[in-house]
Automatic annotation (TrEMBL):
<keyword id="KW-0699">rRNA-binding</keyword>
<keyword id="KW-0690">Ribosome biogenesis</keyword>
<comment type="similarity">
    <text>Belongs to the TRAFAC class YlqF/YawG GTPase family. RsgA subfamily.</text>
</comment>
<feature type="binding site">
    <location>
        <begin position="212"/>
        <end position="220"/>
    </location>
    <ligand>
        <name>GTP</name>
    </ligand>
</feature>
<feature type="binding site">
    <location>
        <position position="298"/>
    </location>
    <ligand>
        <name>Zn(2+)</name>
    </ligand>
</feature>
<dbReference type="GO" id="GO:0016787">
    <property type="term" value="F:hydrolase activity"/>
</dbReference>
<feature type="domain" description="CP-type G">
    <location>
        <begin position="107"/>
        <end position="270"/>
    </location>
</feature>
<feature type="binding site">
    <location>
        <position position="293"/>
    </location>
    <ligand>
        <name>Zn(2+)</name>
    </ligand>
</feature>
<dbReference type="InterPro" id="IPR004881">
    <property type="entry name" value="Ribosome_biogen_GTPase_RsgA"/>
</dbReference>
<keyword id="KW-0342">GTP-binding</keyword>
<protein>
    <recommendedName>
        <fullName>Small ribosomal subunit biogenesis GTPase RsgA</fullName>
        <ecNumber>3.6.1.-</ecNumber>
    </recommendedName>
</protein>
<dbReference type="InterPro" id="IPR027417">
    <property type="entry name" value="P-loop_NTPase"/>
</dbReference>
<keyword id="KW-0479">Metal-binding</keyword>
<keyword id="KW-0547">Nucleotide-binding</keyword>
<dbReference type="Pfam" id="PF03193">
    <property type="entry name" value="RsgA_GTPase"/>
</dbReference>
<keyword id="KW-0694">RNA-binding</keyword>
<dbReference type="InterPro" id="IPR010914">
    <property type="entry name" value="RsgA_GTPase_dom"/>
</dbReference>
């Protein structure tokens, strides 16, 4: 495929206005340590980061170039390109640096990692064969919350639907409850069922990222959308039903029929980051119920006149969903406190440097 027309990759006139002088635009297709594979009008290039890009990334990992970024390339005297700058992102799917410590608590540094940038659609892929595990519904809620926060439009894909013919409608109903207001589709890449519907979200030069656990069939779906084997695939292990990591790097793949897909490695743990409205949108049903609670600051934990607890007791709201809401609310608050603490520390360090320079200047005055 020729990329002489970068509009096929989503380049627009408004982005052209953001391009630094004496540079050319390119889109990041893949990243490695200190370097990236980019697609420019004259083809694909392996480029290293400029010193300003490296310094910005060291100060804040969110500034690190990622797949989907539009970047500015500068031609060096020796004839090779250098990645000179990352252009402003229209959307960014960012996960927080959250992990479990040795005693089972949350740990992290409050910094984030961008998984994909300038994405229009976020496909959340959940394999139907794991549908009996409630944690999977929790994973859908988490990923959809992050998708809303990214600025992209979430779409949930229940993949490998050919393995779950009996009761599939009930499964889809459960998933729709976990993701209110979000399109939910059953997809069988092997049978070709639902693939064309998925492709309809990628008209023109729209970009989608596919997120989900290993074994969800993400790479198989990419191959089905591309109409060719562009990604390596593997079978799920029969012993435990888990998938192997077939995609090691995030990769941007232009499709022949139009549109771009970003495939990602399987996600085992993904933390919230800088969450404003994502959790509220995923749990809009709980938010609506909470408006009918007697007290405006109701914690839905035994207070009189609590409409949320009443909905749980009547069976209108699953207990699992309320617990998931509490978990994500706690995590979002924790990440916000970690981020605030990091920003305060950075500001303190900045003022220490300024004060030291002022004292040094005072000592050097005649």
């Amino acid at each position: 495929m020729s990329f002489s027309d970068l509009s096929l990759l989503g380049w627009t006139g408004s982005r052209a206005a953001e391009l630094p002088d004496d540079t050319v635009p390119a889109r990041v297709a893949r990243v490695d340590r200190g370097a990236a594979e980019v697609i420019a009008a004259d083809g694909q290039h392996h480029v290293r980061y400029s010193a300003p890009v490296r310094r910005a990334s060291a100060a804040d990992p969110v500034a690190l170039p990622c797949v989907g970024d539009w970047v500015a390339l500068r031609l060096l005297p020796e004839g090779r390109y250098e990645l000179d700058a990352v252009l402003p992102r229209s959307t960014a799917f960012v996960r927080g640096g959250v992990s479990r410590d040795s005693v089972g608590g949350l740990s992290g540094d409050g910094q984030g990692q961008v998984l994909a940038a300038n994405v229009d659609v976020v496909f959340v892929a959940e394999p139907s064969m794991h549908s009996t595990d409630f944690a999977d519904l929790g994973r859908i809620e988490r990923l959809v919350a992050l998708a809303w926060e990214s600025g992209g439009t979430p779409v949930v894909l229940v993949t490998k639907s050919d393995l779950f013919d009996d009761g599939l409608d009930d499964l889809l109903a459960d998933v729709r409850t976990a993701a209110p207001g979000v399109d939910v589709h059953a997809v069988s890449s092997l049978r070709g069922e639902g693939v064309e519907l998925v492709g309809s979200y990628l008209g023109g030069s729209r970009t989608a990222v596919i997120l989900g656990p290993s074994g969800a069939g993400k790479s198989t779906l990419v191959n089905a959308l591309a109409g060719a084997d562009v990604m390596e695939t593997q079978q799920v292990r029969a012993a435990d039903g888990r998938g192997r990591h077939t995609t090691v790097h995030r990769e941007l793949i232009p499709l022949r029929g139009g549109g771009i897909v970003i495939d990602t490695p399987g996600i085992r743990r993904i933390g919230l980051y800088d969450m404003n409205q994502g959790v509220d949108l995923v749990f809009s049903d709980i938010e609506e119920l909470a408006e009918r609670c007697r007290f405006g600051d109701c914690g839905h934990d035994g207070e009189p006149g609590c409409a949320v607890r009443a909905a749980v007791e009547s069976g209108e709201l699953p207990e699992r969903r309320l617990e998931s809401w509490r978990k994500l609310q706690r995590e979002a608050a924790w990440m916000a406190s970690r981020t605030d603490a990091r920003l305060r520390k950075e500001q303190q360090n900045k003022w220490k440097i300024i004060t030291k320079e002022m004292r040094r200047s005072g000592r050097n005055r005649p």
